[in-house]
Amino acid sequence: MEFAELIKTPRVDGVVLHRPFMPTVEGTLCLTGHHLILSSRQDNTEELWLLHANIDSIEKRFVGSLGTIIVKCKDLRVIQLDIPGMEECLNIASSIEALSTLDSVSLMYPFFYRPLFEVIEDGWQLFVPEEAFKDLESMVLFYPWNETTLFGLPKEDEEDNIALWSAESAFTVDEAVMMRAAQPLTGTNGRRCKEDEKLINATLCAGKRGYIIDTRTIAVAQQAKTRGGGFEQEANYPQWRRIHKAIERSNVLQDSLIKLVEACNDQSHSMDRWLSKLEASNWQSKVKEILTTACLAAQCIDREGASVLVHGTEGTDSTLQVTSLAQIILDPACRTIRGFEVLIEREWLQAGHPFQQRCAQSAYSNGKPRSEAPVFLLFLDCVWQILRQFPCSFQFNENLLIMFFEHAYASQFGTFLGNCVAERVKLQLSQKTVSLWSWVNRPQELERFLNPLYEPNNLVIWPSVAPQSLLLWEGVFLRWNRSTKCLDEACQEMVHIIEYNKELQNKVNSLRRQLAQLETEDSPLQTP
Amino acid sequence: MIIYDIPAFPKENLVKVENVWLVDRSSSRRTQVGTLYLTATHTIFVGKGSEDRNELWVLHSLVCNVVKHKASQSGYPLLIHCKNFQVIQFIFPQESDCHDVYISLSRLSRPEKYEELYCFSFNPNVGKAEREHSWDFLDLKAEYSQMGLPNKLWHVSPINREYRVCDTYPADLFVPKSVTLPVIVGSSKFRSRGRFPTLSYYCKENHATICRSSQPLSGFSARCLEDEQMLQAIMKSNPESRFMYVVDTRPKLNAMANRAAGKGYENEDNYCNIKFQFIGIENIHVMRNSQQKLIEVSALRSPSMGEFLTGLENSDWLRHIKSIMEAGLFISKAVAEEGVSVLVHCSDGWDRTAQVCSVASVLLDPYYRTLKGLMVLFEKDWVSFGHRFSHRCGHLIGEAKEVSPVIDQFLECIWQLMEQFPCAFEYNEKFLISIHNHIYSCHYGNFICNSQKERKDLCIKEKTHSIWPHLWENKLDFMNPLFKPDQSQNQGLLRPSTAPYCFKYWRRLYNRFDRELHPRQSELDSLMTVKEETQQLEEELALYEQKMAVLDKEHAKTLYMQKGVLDSKQALWSLPLDTSLANTPQDYISGFIGGAPNVFTLQQGERESAEVCLYGDKTKSSDADNSDQESGVADFSSHSSGEESLPSEESVKDPDSDETGPNRA
């Protein structure tokens, strides 16, 4: 297919662009296969480059022959384009609609994008499973038949034992392990699987205990039995204890995001309405639920020295939120930029979170939701909450989290394409696209994401999950609704304070050395 | 333990009860046993077998109410709610002890006479001269002259020198020069409680002013020529402008209802060139109820997100804060952008009027965003203009209906502004909280009584100390490291957004004593430490540069190194931010226990954690200093109460509660 077929009017002059808290720009609008571009063709003026993939939905309006297209983006930005000429406007609108909803993955921009920077370190090679698990002596790593996921498994298990049952992956702290899985397929008549029991029980030495954290309520888990799913019967897993937590399913999440963003975008309403809409969106409750569960998992490992197995239904959504947050709480390495990337790579990409499906639409989707859900965004929100509570314990700042949110929804990089490793292999992403990590990890880019207050902290960090302690993530949800001038200034000042301090330290140190040198040179003079 | 030398310590009043439990409401495992003392001024709890920091001092004047709860298994609980939002729970083994303490504390915390207040017995070791000097720390006359007054249009009127025209106003008042004494007297007779229009803020750049008064006694049709002349004169004192705003901060309905009582608001037809405007800020009773609801929400124990947000919404508190902010913004814009003078009033002109005028001043003038400036603002717009501190803060036993958090709302407006403009304020949040504490503590004389006249009659300046020098001495704690006075957006008028989502819940104030709810690391504290270190480095650098210069000259013949200064220092700010803040897991499982058949309570597991100390103070790790790490496991069970575990970390003594111990400040 040629993109040209979809672009009925490639260029319109005299288009006026309105963006919140920015001056309006008049210029020429161009449509390309992947971008919407507006340029005033003057020097020193900012241009708009918008990926079609970033467009969540559009609205058109007409006043006389002046058409207006309101473009709502997946990063929650809303922009307005005034286009003279009804026909041009209609053409542009239908082109945008078509180009922003392309079905085929292989037509996405990452397959066409050529980096303007030199790839020093190929991000596709960032995560090598053998490396990550190499400290686990009693584990073997193996690649199952379908290459959907990578596993770290106890050595004594046979390869095919797990074939019928849940997929698991592990993270360790000392001798305790954290694993994730999907639900066991016990069904209504309580089917058992010797291999699964053996696999799970094998992770615990004699006398050790483990906790199975089921992210569903007991009622939901019971219900799952009627569809062939279920939960572990404790009699069959004697060393394990099961805890149920109520994390809602991902389909409810999408609705929650839509309501939250609607509340944030409504400038007109009163205090009462704002708070009641914020409450009704339920987003903050979900942040609390997930953080609580992650803390519980971390607590089992750190305080009890017990192993933990986390699962919900599929093991690709709430399970990943819980296991990855627990690692951030427990493991200082995950609070570095590199470590956080590895965490996303291991706990989200390799673990098969279906990014393509979940991030197909964002808060402005007006169609019937299919499998869209801001599971990853909610995870990032939770990380932000911990970051707010431990502002000196993370190597990165909020910008990194926001950047991940943007790229999960629309990107020039191939990292978040596809729904699992198997799909990515099939798409040959590592050959045909550039990895997000190749770009982020360049020193020039990294600078933007560094937290000036960072001081490595080897401890477990326990966040507060009380409603009083959890905040609305303004950096994402109010990003386009307020002027950030004063807040940006504060960030710059913070960087300045710390850089100035370091600069002084260097000066003092070098002077101190010079003085010491002079002293030794002089000392023979003093001792006759 | 150390028994503090408490002045005027009446031995017969001393109550001492042993084996009292102090319950930490956030987690039962920090509950401790100790001895409770009631002195004339403080309730003191001393933890058993602990060093002196394990003490809790509570000023009686900070106690809001004392409640006996139903006896439980562990004993007889007594709950003390404080005006600084601290909630303290004691459990007594004997009912009679509980009752005795209840009776004594109820009496001690509700003084009938001013002389019983703590400020009259508070006696730091300073001489008479120094005390008197403390009252000269702020000089309002000098402050007005900083503002550009008196000048050719405004002067101080001697009319209220003896407080005869208005006994709730200060002695010195600025009025337009063109106004004659009979006009002032006439106008004052036409205003509630004689509070005639007088100057609050003068804008040097464009001569626009903010004036304040009480409501006019206009009823349905009454007029007063002198009052009309007064307003005319105020307008004319701003030569550039052709009209002035009259802002009634009440809801229109309230103002109209007042007409029936012979009060009311200005009729635009009777006053030349005024633009009249209502701004609906609710009255003190609505505010009192609103804050009561907010306090209930803030004190909820492990609420769900829904409960919290619904409670916050139902309290209406943030809506009121927003309306005050909007009023302040309206006035400051009129002054700065339109160059128009504004007369502000409510009913009596000492609550909403004070709030709105002072918020407008903070928005208008960078001076009030400095430490000194805010102190001046308090003295000027609140203390001198007769905000009824004693009534509103309930210093004395009396009308509960007079109590209202008017001053809390002003402090909160500043805090909300600090959230929007992090670099515009010289002071930080701690400064506001400290002022809040002292307004209620009656530790210093500044916020006693309801007017300047009352304070004079009581000889406050002779008998008590002033708060401001005390705060000034500790100013290092109150500095905002991000303050950038030179930045253009921090100069001139601040234009805050008043969109609802810009108003946030002030956790640091309302959950001040719930330490587990606050961030475990503080951006503010780290930055302050960095700045402090930077200053030291600058000094060190200057010293070295000086030495280098000397060396260059004399070829270093007589150089002696000063070892002490040259000792290499590690980054100071990487050291613990606050070692007393242990990282402890919360109760993450409560509410899920007991619901389902298969869930259970985790047992307490003793596990030595290698990572004992949070803030990298490696030398201290693994000692008992941070026992929270180990005992944290108990939190899995929300039901295990009354277990005996003494907190070794500072769980009861708030770091900035210097005000609660008499000889510590």
Q: Would you kindly provide a written description of the structure presented here, covering whatever features stand out?
A:
Chain A: Belongs to the protein-tyrosine phosphatase family. Non-receptor class myotubularin subfamily. Chain A: This is Myotubularin-related protein 9. Chain A: Keywords: Acetylation, Cell membrane, Cell projection, Coiled coil, Cytoplasm, Endoplasmic reticulum, Membrane. Chain A: It holds the Pfam family PH-GRAM_MTMR6-like. The complex is a heterodimer of chains A (528) and B (665). Chain A has 528 residues and is α+β, with helices and mostly antiparallel strands. Chain A is built from 19 helices and 14 strands. Chain A has helices at 3-6, 86-100, 129-132, 194-202, 218-226, 250-265, 271-281, 283-304, 318-330, 337-350, 355-358, 375-389, 398-409, 421-427, 429-432, 436-440, 443-449, 474-477, 485-526, and strands spanning 11-18, 25-31, 35-39, 48-51, 55-63, 66-73, 78-84, 139-142, 151-154, 169-173, 176-181, 210-214, 240-244, 307-311. In chain A, a hairpin with a 6-residue loop joins strand 1 (11-18) and strand 2. In chain A, helix 8 (283-304) crosses helix 12, helix 9 packs parallel to helix 12 (375-389) and helix 12 (375-389) packs antiparallel against helix 13 (398-409). The longest helix of chain A has 42 residues, at 485-526. Residues 137-151 and 153-168 of chain A have low confidence and may be disordered. Chain B is of the alpha+beta class. The longest helix of chain B is centred in the C-terminal third of the chain and has 32 residues, at 523-554. Chain B is globular, with a radius of gyration of 28 Å. At the A-B interface, strand 13, helix 7, helix 8 and helix 19 of A face helix 9, helix 10 and helix 21 of B.
